[in-house]
Structure formats: C-alpha cells, structure tokens
Amino acid sequence: MDRPLGERFALLTDLYQLTMAACYFEAGMAEEATFSFFIRKYPPNRGFFVAGGLEEALNYLATLRFVEDDLAYLESTRLFQRKFLDYLKSVRFTGEVNALPEGSIFFKDEPVLEVSGPVIEAQLAETFIINAVSLQTLIASKAARSFHVARGRPLIDFGLRRCQGTDAGLKAARASYLAGFLGTSNVLAGKLYGISTFGTMAHSYITSFPREIEAFRLFAQVFPDKTILLIDTYDDIRGARHAVRVAKEMEARGKRLQYVRLDSGDIAAISQEVRKVLDDAGLTYVKILASGGFDEFKMARVLDAGGRVDTFAVGTKMGVSADAPYFDCAYKLVKYGARPVMKLSTGKVTLVDKKQVHRFYDEQGRLHRDVIALREEAVPGGAPLLNKVMEQGRILGPLPTLKESRDYFISQFGLLPEPYKAIQDPPAYPVTWSPGLTALQAKVEQEILEREIK
Amino acid sequence: MDRPLGERFALLTDLYQLTMAACYFEAGMAEEATFSFFIRKYPPNRGFFVAGGLEEALNYLATLRFVEDDLAYLESTRLFQRKFLDYLKSVRFTGEVNALPEGSIFFKDEPVLEVSGPVIEAQLAETFIINAVSLQTLIASKAARSFHVARGRPLIDFGLRRCQGTDAGLKAARASYLAGFLGTSNVLAGKLYGISTFGTMAHSYITSFPREIEAFRLFAQVFPDKTILLIDTYDDIRGARHAVRVAKEMEARGKRLQYVRLDSGDIAAISQEVRKVLDDAGLTYVKILASGGFDEFKMARVLDAGGRVDTFAVGTKMGVSADAPYFDCAYKLVKYGARPVMKLSTGKVTLVDKKQVHRFYDEQGRLHRDVIALREEAVPGGAPLLNKVMEQGRILGPLPTLKESRDYFISQFGLLPEPYKAIQDPPAYPVTWSPGLTALQAKVEQEILEREIK
Q: Using the beta-carbon criterion (under 8 Å), do B452 and A234 form an inter-chain contact?
C-alpha cells in the first residue's frame, strides 16, 4: 500500500508556502483564512468547465502531515528555526471545505472550492490543491467536448503514453471517464478506479509476424470473444480483406469479430471503404474503431465527412488538453479573520469573501444563468451549488463514487443548452454578481485604494 | 520508502501490451525484439531536443515485476488464462538498452534509446518508457530555450502548481534543472533530486496583513539572509518604496535585502522604474526577480525592451511546455529475430534495425551534422552518441548524477551553433542516413510491398 496522499506529498509544495508559514508562526497569526479556487478566463473556444479532482484534494487535506524524513530535509536547508519545525510536525488540516461536486458544470470566476482554516493550514495546501484540481478539471473539461461531438458513440481514453507523467496518465483516465468516456487503455487506472479497460494490438505486433494475417489469426484464437484487428499496418483495404478472412474463420468456430481498427490516413474516406468491404462480405456486425490523433475537432471533421466510425479512441490531444494545456486558475485569499481581502495587481482582481454560486434554470429545466453571491446571502430562486464537504479536517459523509459523479455530469450536461457546447466560438454563459457581493467588492476596493495607494 | 518503480507501475501500461504478450506467449514467440524510441517531427519553432528521463526508464526496467495484487486484478478481468498469468508472475526485463546520455542534444528521427530483449519483455515496457522519456525530454527541450534567452541570468522553476499532476511537477523541476535552470520552488523535488529551492511570498501573504509594509517587515525579520519582497500586490512603485524602507531598516541591523519580485504588468517598463527607485535610494545591490507567465518568448520581449531583470522565475508555460505540450514520438519495433521490420502506414515510416547516431563536429568543435547508421556500421570520423547502459536487465555502471548530466548539457549546448538555438524559425540541423541504413531501408520496404501489398 502506498502511504496516504497527504504524507507522501506534504513537501510537494512551493517553498514560499513554508516561508510564509514560518512568518505567520513567528507573528502568532492563526486567524481563520478563506482561500477560493477559481478559473480566471476561458481558453480559446471554451465556454464551460467540468469540475474534477475534489476527492483527491480532500484525501490530501485529511491526511496532510510532515513525517520525520521530510522534517529532516527541511532542517538540512538551514532556512527554518527548530521551533517552527517542531510546530510543523504537529500540523494537521483542521478546517472546512465548501466545493462543487465532481462532474459539475461551472463557469469562469465561479469558486470551485473554498478552503477555510487557520491561515497556515489553508495556505500550505495551496500548491497541491491547485495541482490536483486544475489537472482533473482540465482533462474533464476537454473530454466533455469529445463526449458532446461523439453523440452517444462510445469513447475510449488512449492518452497514457503521451500524458505528462504517471500521475497525469492515471488522472486523464479518471477525468475522461468522469466526463462521459466509456473506458481506458490504462490498466492501472482500471484497477484503481474500477474503469473498464480496452485494448487491441500495436503495429509492432503485426510486424513481428512474417505476414499480417498470421498475426490476426493468433489474436482471434487467444481472444475469441474480444477480437479487435488493427488493419492499417501495411494497407487498410488489404488489411480489411485479411480481417474478413479471419472473421469468416471465426464464424466457422461460432465466434464473431468485434472490431477492426483504423489508426492513420483519411479516416472519413477509409472508414467508408472498409465499411463496404465488411458489408459486402456480410459482416455488418463488425464495428469500426478509429484512433490516431483524435480530439473533438478531428472527430467532428470525420463525422461531418460521412466517416463510418462506431467508436473513437481519443489519445494524446485529450490527455494533455493540447489546445489549452493549462488553465489560468488561482487559489486566492478572500478573507482573513473578519476582513474580506483582495489584490489589485493589473488585470487580476479577486472576488472577496466566502461565496456561493446560485444557478437558475429555465422552464424546461435547462441551465439559464448563474449568480455569484456572498456565502450567506439570500438569492431567491437560485439553487446553491457548493456543498460543505469537509469540517474540522474530516470528510463529511461518503463522497459520491466515480460512477455517481459521472452520472451527475451526464445529467447536468444534458441540461446545458446546445449553443454553450459548441466546440468553436461558444457564446458566454451569463454569470452575474449578487447585490451583496457587488457592494462588498466596491467597498473593499475603495478601502485598499485609500490605505495603500493614495 | 515507496516501492520500486517497476513494481509500482507494472500495470501503468496500455491493455494491448498485455493482450499482445498473451498472444506471443501462446505462440511461443520469444525471439529478441528491438524497439527504437524517437521523435518524428519538430513542433513549430523547434529545431533541437534535449534528452531526459533515461534514469527513470532504466529504474523501471530494472525493477519491473507484477506483484500478487496486480495479478489478482488481471485475473478479475477474465481476459487472461491462468498459465499466462503464472508466466507474468515470473517476468523480469532481461534485455539490453542503448541510449543517449541525459542532457544530450538530439534531432528528429534519431533514436534516443533502443530496447532489445525477448519480445514480450521489450513490448511490455513500451507505455512506461514513452511516458517517462517523452515527459522529461519535452520539459528539458522547452527549458533549454529559456536557458538560451536568459544568457546567464539565473532561472528558477515555478511550474509545480499548474503542471499536469504530481509526477509532472517533480519531473518539470528535474528536467528544467537538467537544461540549465538554477533551482525550483518545488520542495519535494529539492529533497528527491538535491536541487536548490527558492521561494518568496504570495499575494495572499501580503493581503493577510492590514498593511503591505507590515508583511515586508515580518519577512525581513524571520528570513534576514534570504529576504525577497513581492511588491506588486497593490501598486509596484508604492511597493518598491515600502521595500526601500524595509531595506534601510535591514541595513541598520547589518542585513541586506536580496531581491524585490515583480509578478504582473508591463515588466519591461516597471522593472526600469523599480530599478530607479532602488538605485536612487542607494540600493544598487538589491536585485529584481520577475515572475508571471514567463517563457522564452516573454523573456526575450522583456529583455529586448530594456527590462532590468536579474533573475526570472519560469512557471506554467515551461512546466507544461505550453506551445508544444506533447511530442510526436514513438517506440517502434525495428527488428524481430534476425528480421529488420517497419510499418508503412501513411506518413509514418520507421527506420529499420538497430541503429547508432554519429555526430560530426567542425574545426571549432561545434556541432556540424549527424548521421544515423546501422548499429555496427563503420562511420569514419563520426562520434557515436548512444551508449550501452543496460545489459541482461542490469544497469551498467553508475549512471551520471543529475548535476553531471546538467554539466554535460551545458557543455554540449555551448557547442550548438547559435542559429539552431533561435526560438523562432530555426534552420534544420543536417541529419542524414548512412549508406548501410539507406540500402537496408529500401530493401525492407521493397520486401514488404512485394509480400503484403502487391
């Protein structure tokens, strides 16, 4: 068993979290601080986000502790005083978290989670929380676009090999499943998250045999109920004819070829030719799986051009969110003690204080508009989206299972009007500030201008 | 202690590696296979790569094994027969690896590493090797561009929070250090890799105090020898004046303010103003550190516009290689048994057989051209770049330390002529095929055309 997340990754933090903590410790500053995690703007062609990574963030907070080995390393840097390191040894996260459920659809500037606790504890968690929540939110938000374009066709995550590291490979499988994918090629993700795994064969498998058809025959013999044949190693149409021969041999044994797979070339055109080869041979039950550089854009092009693809394997471009490989997200202090706070750096304004997001639905039950409000402010008619999920450092109740979060995403995504799902130039979903937030924001800005700038 | 890499990540593989292995096992195919890892093409504005991740790949191969818990999971999928799972239990990597040293500069189509071993062993390793080598190579190749533009100014990795996961955050610190960075904000990377760590304070630290100058004073008191003050929370110039007051107070105590940090706005203009504020106060020794959205492009713009920045913190855009978040790389079978092999899919041709890269230097000792040759082919005058680093599953000799690999990169990068380092539209470095490789490539292609296509 691996050690708990919060132990393994207590030092997976920016050094400044620890230098700031040492200052707070020295000054005896222990008032409650609230930090808000949000995304500042949409990448090009994006108009919504899908929340992911909450479970990981909570598991980290619930188990955060600095073990002896880590403290010994910190001591070796000679940056910190003994009494501060002794204090770190006893640090646990004792605060509260309010958050959107995983699978939620949300929009820019809306808090995804807010962490409240003694300032050192809430500050120390910044780096890990941004790292964890931004990655899964990034991938889920990207994968949801493929889910939209596929219109019910099953999607499989093939991203692992070119994901940015081992953790990213696992999280891409989890987050794409959360956003409606059916399964993954990633076996460890299958084991850890209970996701269905899918796999065929590589070109190397084909080329390690003197002839393609021998490679096909062996696979059909070893996996008679799960045969998927990769037919483009040398020539798609020849490959399809070899697959037909093997399928007929399988029929004679009472088995059925499941899929042929295409991995290169003009998939729209080739899939139509291959479909004809299969149909002409009476193999209308054999499906076509396509892989190779797919994302929502290529998938839309292939389908618009009449491609006959039943299932898409979506790899690298989803797995690294290639057109938007990071979000402009932040974890900002919004309240310290009784005082709402913000920074005023050029172009980077924070919404002050503890908040809540209220969602309004139209008469058909579809998403209509959101209002960002102060946490305790009454917003008649709106449905509050953030829930309290951690209190006094303990996770409240059982978290939803991954499957439940996926079901929640699919139900909510069904309520998002079509225009907002457009993969190019979507309109902006309306998000406004409540009267209470608007007034407080203006008041705090004015106070800072008077105190620090005038 | 975490378990060995090859045990923790035996299942971090695409399912097809296991289905192919089951076929090879069933057919008794155990001949030696050689796989070659290479990058097929340059992303836009790129003309060279920096090799990273070899140590991780070798540690994985040296410790690869399927533990009971993993075998139990595989059994639960009902995909595999008992005798194959029994075989998997005993699988170890017993082959050979030839590779470029970490820190090497290389070019497209050149093998970065070649893995030879019984086909199941060499095939099983594909996913992890691509994942590990492509990530560190991606980040090192990106970071080297900042190293070039900085012209000797120290660079610090600030990427962790928006890197794609925990592993990516660690590897970004390691790979950017490999490519000439001085240090990182990532404390765990500091501990694991022995890299220097750097840190200042966040805007939240400033805003948690009623007044900016109080936050500055406390930091200067707690870290008197490492004081870096973030001055842009409310207004850069006011912040610089507050920093001057604190620096004078420090002088009275015999201490010196090290840095002020800028994190937003027009850094070229602001840094000049701040420099003037500092110099006018007699604080010519106080340096300026800039952060906030830096990559090689922004760094070049700021320096070209006369920015007075002494040290750059480079974060997200380097940490995810934002303009090229993945490489078109592959791990392809190039030889099976005595037979050199390739695939012919549209636009994706593989160079056959075991290979070596020979580098030719000009009279000044600078990189002149490379020749890709067959492994044992004589290439007079060229310096062979790939070394045998693993034999019979054992790592040969002590690998270079990270510091040694960094020194190697820096020395080699100094020998790469300036035009190839251009961050926009670099010329193509000349790489040709040897006579032996050219002839064999043509022969194998002809044989395949005759066998599979005609």
A: yes
